[in-house]
User: Which sequence fits this backbone?
């Protein structure tokens, strides 16, 4: 996760892949430094990279520990990063380790790195040798008779073709897409969801078709009734008149909080029943809205006739909808939109069984954890991005409840790329969890359901480029129900408020941030009982069948209906924590932590005898006092429920890690556990390309 100002600049990761070893030093050191480990990388000699790692003296005074458990895990971690780099210039690594400030080398290890890039390079060199042998053979054939020459030549060609076919290593369709030149294979026109085959809607009307960046926009609650209708009348262009950002987005979405119906059959069980004339759909079309969420507490205000008329009105206007339907299959159906080659799945859930759709019964899509997991896992291998909408929480609460945080993180664990929440009518905080953004509430956007017409809010802008996701809040002032993106002091005030209410999280989301997505997270979620990958014993690092796909230059590979493997990286041991958003980057302008390039071509020295700073004295990620004052609810955790059936979801796994028990250093030791809880003191290295995510 990094802050990015200019996407046109090559990333450190790309520079390192191209052979810039100062960039490689920058990258490796920034990954290890937050864990109390300094690294210095020197240029490869005969394809072998030399790395000196130095441990803080406070980090692990037990040299026996550094020479056993930590050594194995660190070597695997570094080898995995170099394998992900997939550079033809890197064929091996030689690692030297010592304590900071001490000249004595604790251990050394050399490992050969086998990647597709250097494997192809070696194959190319071998083919050159074969070509030279063929040349000598052809020259010799010219000296013999024509009949014998034809026989020998035919035998040679047949043997060479058979040998070449045998030497070709099997690769997945996704690896082939990055290796084979020519147009990518055509993706199917439909996606198999959990309950049915869903067609893919092609979004061809975009503001800038030549810009490869896909822009998504998300707004909060939209209500086109009552006060809005009274103040604007038939001026359907008024509401979005100052929101060019919505019209310029490739796909724009809102949460529609009222039926579009003329029905008078209102629900007698509710105090407030909202509705708007079907002609009001022109407000959405004039504003550039492409998709609406109907999984909310007002979709059924006028019961089934009102919902059916709303769906028909949206269909006629060309606006996609999700989260409600004439039956459970329609209510649960995702929207699949493909724009500029990026295939995006939208899901919507209402966190209540009130007016829930069922077999032969119209209603909203109820949130049930096993269904959420099944829906995401069914789509994961067939789309590039999965976005989940939740209508949840307590109205006017500034912070989400613990159960919402658990549910949002559970959703990311299953393979979602973005979680967007609404319903509380006010902005709530946002966080980054496992490299994926969670926005708990976007508040009101254009809400004519009450007399308050002036208020501050924000919309979420998401930009997708290759396998990168850039997320940012756009501050919005609403005056007389007319929103407008603001800058200057007004914009700073709104963003400061979002930052303040997001500070309760250990990784708050701040505008703007770029996240490096995984190559389509795999369909199998991680389980708490996952084990480490095989130890590097033979001196060669080559991922096995279950290992992640290497990152190549062609990272935006089209899907073929099969799930792509998910990069799962070994985690480094816990060490004193560095400030957030500073320890890892792949696709941004550079890391926040300063790391000097290699000063010389010989390893070591670089010895510092001054006491190293101990960042562990930094404040805890969570405040010690309760951050939710009033109201506060604690429904049962989403994880507490019935035992899933074989057709249900597989429990999520935590990232691979290795345990280190540091003697007499309780503040920097790792406490063995099965999960990384929000309240515990343990700090784990963020997943490098986790699932996209």
Assistant:
């Amino acid at each position: 996760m990094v802050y990015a100002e200019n996407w046109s600049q090559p990333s450190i990761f790309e520079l390192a892949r191209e052979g810039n070893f100062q960039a490689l030093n920058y990258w490796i050191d920034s990954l290890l430094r937050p864990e109390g480990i300094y690294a210095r990388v020197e240029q490869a000699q005969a394809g072998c990279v030399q790395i000196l790692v130095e441990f803080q003296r406070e980090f692990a005074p037990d040299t026996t520990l550094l020479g056993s458990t930590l050594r194995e895990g660190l070597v695997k971690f570094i080898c995995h990063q170099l394998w992900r780099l997939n550079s033809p210039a890197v064929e091996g690594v030689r690692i030297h380790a010592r304590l900071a400030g001490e000249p004595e080398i604790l251990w050394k290890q050399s490992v050969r790195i086998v990647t597709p890039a250097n494997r192809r390079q070696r194959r190319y060199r071998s083919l050159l040798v074969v070509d030279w042998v063929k040349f000598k053979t052809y020259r010799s054939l010219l000296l013999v008779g024509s009949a014998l020459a034809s026989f020998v030549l035919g035998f040679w060609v047949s043997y060479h073709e058979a040998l070449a076919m045998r030497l070709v290593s099997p690769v997945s369709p996704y690896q082939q897409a990055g290796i084979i030149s020519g147009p990518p294979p055509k993706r199917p026109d439909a996606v198999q969801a959990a309950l049915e085959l869903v067609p893919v809607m092609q979004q061809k009307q975009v503001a800038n078709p030549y810009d490869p960046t896909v822009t998504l926009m998300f707004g909060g609650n939209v209500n086109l009734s009552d006060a809005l209708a009274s103040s604007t009348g038939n001026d359907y262009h008024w509401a979005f008149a100052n929101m060019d950002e919505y019209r310029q987005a490739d796909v724009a979405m809102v949460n529609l909080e009222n039926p579009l119906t003329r029905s008078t059959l209102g629900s007698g069980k509710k105090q407030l029943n909202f509705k708007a004339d079907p002609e009001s759909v022109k407000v959405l079309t004039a504003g550039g809205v492409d998709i609406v969420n109907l999984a909310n507490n007002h979709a059924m205000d006028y019961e089934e006739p009102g919902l059916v008329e709303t769906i028909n009105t949206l269909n006629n206007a060309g606006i996609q909808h999700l989260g409600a339907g004439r039956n459970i299959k329609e209510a649960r159906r995702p929207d699949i939109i493909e724009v500029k080659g990026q295939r995006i799945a939208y899901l919507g859930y209402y966190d209540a069984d009130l007016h829930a759709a069922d077999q032969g019964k119209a209603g909203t899509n109820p949130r049930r954890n096993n269904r959420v997991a099944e829906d995401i896992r069914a789509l994961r291998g067939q789309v590039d991005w999965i976005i989940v909408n939740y209508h949840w929480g307590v109205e006017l609460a500034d912070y989400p409840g613990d159960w919402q945080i658990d549910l949002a993180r559970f959703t990311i664990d299953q393979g979602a790329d973005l979680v967007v929440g609404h319903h509380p009518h006010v902005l709530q905080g946002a966080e980054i969890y496992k490299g994926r953004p969670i926005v708990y509430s976007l508040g009101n956007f254009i809400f004519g359901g009450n007399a308050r017409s002036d208020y501050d809010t924000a919309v979420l802008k998401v930009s997708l480029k290759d396998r990168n996701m850039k997320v940012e809040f756009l501050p919005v002032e609403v005056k007389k129900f007319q929103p407008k993106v603001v800058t200057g002091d007004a914009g700073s005030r709104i963003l400061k408020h979002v930052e303040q209410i997001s500070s309760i999280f250990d990784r708050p989301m701040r505008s703007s941030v770029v996240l490096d997505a995984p190559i389509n997270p795999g369909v199998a979620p991680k389980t708490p009982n996952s084990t480490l990958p095989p130890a590097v014993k033979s001196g060669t690092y080559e991922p096995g069948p279950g290992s992640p796909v290497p990152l190549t230059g062609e990272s935006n590979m089209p899907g073929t209906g099969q799930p792509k493997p998910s990069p799962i990286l070994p985690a480094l041991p816990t060490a004193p924590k560095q400030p957030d958003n500073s320890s890892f980057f792949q696709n941004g302008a550079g890391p926040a932590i300063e790391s000097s390039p290699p000063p010389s071509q010989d390893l070591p020295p670089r010895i510092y005898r001054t006491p190293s700073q101990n960042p562990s004295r930094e404040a805890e990620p969570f405040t010690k006092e309760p951050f939710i004052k009033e109201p506060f609810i604690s429904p049962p955790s989403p994880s507490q429920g019935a035992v899933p059936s074989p057709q249900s979801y597989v429990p999520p796994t935590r990232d691979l890690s290795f345990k280190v028990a540091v003697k007499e250093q309780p503040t920097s030791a790792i406490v063995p556990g099965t999960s990384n809880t929000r309240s515990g003191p343990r700090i784990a290295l963020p997943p490098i390309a986790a699932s996209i995510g």
About this structure: The longest strand covers residues 468-479. The chain has a mean pLDDT of 74. The first helix runs from residue 12 to 17.
